[in-house]
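Comment on this:
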Amino acid sequence: MASRGACVVAYAMLCGIWGSTWLVIRIGLQGAPPFLAAGLRFVIASLVLLTLAAVFRSKLPMGRTEWGLIALFGVILFTVDYGLIYWAENRGLGSGLSAILFATMPLQTALLAHAILRNEPLTIPRVVGILVGFAGVLLVFRGEFEAAGLTTLFPMLAIIVSATCAALATVAAKRWGHGIDVFTFNGFAMGIGSIGLLAWSAAAAEPWAVPSWPAGILSILYLSLVASVVAFGTYVWLLRKLPATSMSYIALVTPVIAVFLGVAIAGEAFDPLAIAGAAIILSGIYLSTSRRAVSWIRNLMGAGVVPEATSAGLKNPKR
């Protein structure tokens, strides 16, 4: 069983990698159309993962449940979720506003986990922590949210649906994904997802050409190898050790990382309130995962003490 330290390091690495993807996707769309870019990303990632599976002689999926989960993961996460994200950003939706809307994922995950997973009930501390964290995201990106108009309505709805897909995929993998090899699980799922994305690209009559250098090619390579192969391998590994709701808190942290990367790399304007928003986000995660904070909230609400198994979050990875 992995140590708590290993889980914390892996979790922080995921936040850093996925915090960078909003900016990298936006840069990459300057050199390739959205569905083609997403499709090529997962074609490359799938080939790398299946090659690693062959090298390490990974066990192939067996039975309807495992193959069904892989197909579900491939379609709802890699085709629909990422297809909508790339499409929305290509339609002019800012990466900040996209991050706000995608930050609805933790609440959606908590609701789905309550319905599907036996040991992840929807507790008051979780709801309080998620709402506090989301308030922090709104503070970080309040300017983009206030400036959004009707022209961005459909891209905004697309991001909300993408967050729903990600939440469903997370809960499904937590419920039925135990025992499936990480390489084969992600490799086949990304392969299925890439087929859907390339079909979407063909249906949208996107021009099929070699992505431009350096924006298109470097973006696809980074997103394939780092944000897909490394990140999703780590994600599935962590999901077997942490509650699904705790994993979804990554969606609250990544927008803050995206802001600071935008300032440092893309020369975006710095808003001092972003620091306050980041502190509020971290406070929300603490309220949801700290045993002391959970007990305090439950006692404040007159509901007693939450069992350790449902409240420990990152503090209790040995599940």
Summary: The longest helix spans residues 63-90. The chain is about 75% helix and 0% strand.
